[in-house]
Design a protein that fits this description.
- With 172 residues, the protein is mostly helical.
- The protein has a domain of 63 residues.
- Helices cover 44% and strands 3% of the residues.
- The protein contains eight helices and two strands, in the order H-H-H-H-H-E-E-H-H-H.
- A two-stranded antiparallel ribbon has the order 1-2.
- Helix 7 crosses helix 8.
- The longest helix is centred in the last third of the chain and has 13 residues.
- Binds calmodulin. Interacts with NDUFAF3.
- InterPro entries: NDUFAF4 (IPR009622).
- One of its GO terms (biological process) is mitochondrial respiratory chain complex I assembly.
- It holds the Pfam family UPF0240.
- This is NADH dehydrogenase [ubiquinone] 1 alpha subcomplex assembly factor 4.
Length: 172
């Protein structure tokens, strides 16, 4: 609502306001200061002549100067076997399901892939006596508290099919 009101005021009489701004007198720029150096050389021909003349004494001194430049030899710094310590994570092979081509092959210990998570949630849902939290933690190298949280807060989807004879079914 507020945008409509401001747009009305903004677009009100736009053309006449634009013409008024265009027709205003332009301000005159400030006068530039004359530089003394350029004006002095333009007026005095002997200064120009002195600038263009070659000095023989300076030329002979310049011919005696010889400059030789050499780069220092490049030294490659070898670490001498000292390397920064890198964090080595223990990896384990995943327990591949039917989506083996889509799933990752190696996972760090303490973590699981998406396919493994769905598989263990489904196994626990179908057979909770066999797939307990302790067994899942041992099987997938996970901590028990993480497995308990996973089983508590994540539930896989269930597919329910309703019989066609119910009253809610649409008859065609």
């Amino acid at each position: 609502m507020g945008g409509r009101v401001t747009r009305v005021f903004r677009t009100f009489n736009v053309e006449s306001r634009a013409r008024r701004e265009i027709s205003k007198e332009k301000p005159t720029p400030a006068p530039r200061h004359r530089t003394a150096r350029l004006d002095a050389t333009a007026d005095q021909p002997e200064v120009k002549e002195k600038i263009l003349r070659k000095d023989d004494r300076l030329l002979t001194l310049l011919k005696d100067v010889y400059v030789e430049s050499r780069d220092p030899p490049v030294q490659v710094k070898d670490g001498g076997g000292q390397r920064l310590p890198c964090k080595q994570e223990e990896k384990r092979l995943t327990k591949l399901g039917h989506l083996g081509a889509l799933d990752v092959k190696k996972v760090s210990k303490g973590k699981i892939s998406i396919v493994e998570a769905l598989t263990l949630l489904n196994n626990h849902k179908l057979h909770p006596q066999i797939w307990t939290a302790e067994k899942i933690a041992a099987e997938y190298s996970l901590e028990l508290k993480d497995v308990n949280s996973l089983l508590e807060f994540f539930i896989p989807f269930t597919v329910q099919e309703f019989p066609k004879e119910t009253k809610k079914a649409i008859k065609s």
